[in-house]
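re: ur question from earlier - yeah i can do the single chain one, its not a big deal. heres the input i used so u can compare w yours
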Amino acid sequence: MFIFAKGREFMPWRGTQTVLVILMGLFLASCIAMASGFSTPLYAFGLGLTPLSAGFAAMICFIGFIVTRYAALQFRDERDSSKFWRRLVATIGAILLTAIADHFLLFWLGWVSVSLTLHRLLVFYPERPRALLAAHKKFIFARIAETLLAVTLVSLYLVYDIHAISQLPQISDPSVSNWLAFLLVTVAAMKCAQLPVHGWLLQVVEAPTPVSALLHAGIINLGGYLLLQFAPLLTPAEGARWLLAIVAGLSMLVAASVTMTRISVKVRLAWSTVAQMALMLVEISLGFYALAALHLLAHSCYKAYSFLSAGSVVEQGERQQFAQLTLPRVKGLLLASVLALALVVLAAWLFGAQLYFAPWLAVGMALALWLASEIDYFGRRHSLRTALIAAFWLALYVAGAWIFTLLLPAPYSGHYLLGIDLWVCLVLLGIAAVYLWLLYRPRRALGHRLFIALNAGLYLDEWATRFSLRLWPLRLPSTTPRKGDRA
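and the output i got, formated as tokens:
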């Protein structure tokens, strides 16, 4: 009887996983067929399958499959397993509806449903005050973003007489839509937890691990997906792209710097998500929509793995201490920078670089840090081997970005915005400067003060917390034990 009961408990989880695998296969096949020209985009009943929407839906199905497998094991002995399953399935379904919705009304309803179902997952353990506070702040910011999104969609219907995302390229006078692009940028920044409304994302780590994985690997990407879907509206709006570059650039600088000072694994991953979402939004502001789509896919898979395997990070840290890994020497870092510069210039020349320097600078910085650690560990005699491996990964990255241009062929405007390019380059150099200073000069007075300020998150979340509690007060449950509960 016990085994039979356990089997019945697992049936909903297994059924959900089977459905997600089938849907993932269908969405992926549709994406490949449309991207290769064997099929045209499909539109029916307010839904639409394009290479972008089908690919995003396939990714959500994959993430949902991994998360449900993990949750089935984590909640197998929980009394509220069925309740958690219902909430999790409702959230995944809402994300899929948003992904394939073409009609404005269905898209907005799916967007709101994602927020409401996620809220029920965040408060699954109502006795945790930090989780309730984070969900409360997220609830307020989500309502503001949904209102702005509704204003944008209604305005598009009234001004341009369009009611579907597929009709956006029909806009004949894009100059009138600048203020609508500003609204879209604001909605996307709030959905991606950009500064200063980022605090709730750092505190929802109190939620169950499957919820954190689904949030950081799928839901948080909806802001970038929104801008990719509405790219025909955003591309000609230079003012909105400037706003996106400034907000996302500052968020990337602060979040990447704060990540270096955190010890808690989940909190570091949360700050990393803020920085990665900021980088994706910066790519969109530059017009690299295919690169942003590739970033979205890679980040989702990486972050789902990171959260679901967070328990093994301590073991990995012990292995690194046992191997006695040290910081790369300055000479090795300089040699690695020269090699990375040569590889990036060669790749830009061979594959036909765009006008912007910022994306290549980001790739070059990442390659330089990796090469420095490899050269320092294996020695300079293996520099050629290490450079060949780096060249292989660089070619694979460029090839992936090129393949994703099949999903998003049209929106790049071709208009070079020098100011945005220089701004992003300065942000990237600032991140590198903070990183190197904290690594090589941590005991200096400036490094010590910088570490303290960054470890506190520059005290930015306090403003958002005060604002949300003044706007809508929250009564948290008492954490003091009751009289009868004391030993």
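The radius of gyration is 23 Å. not sure if urs matches, ping me
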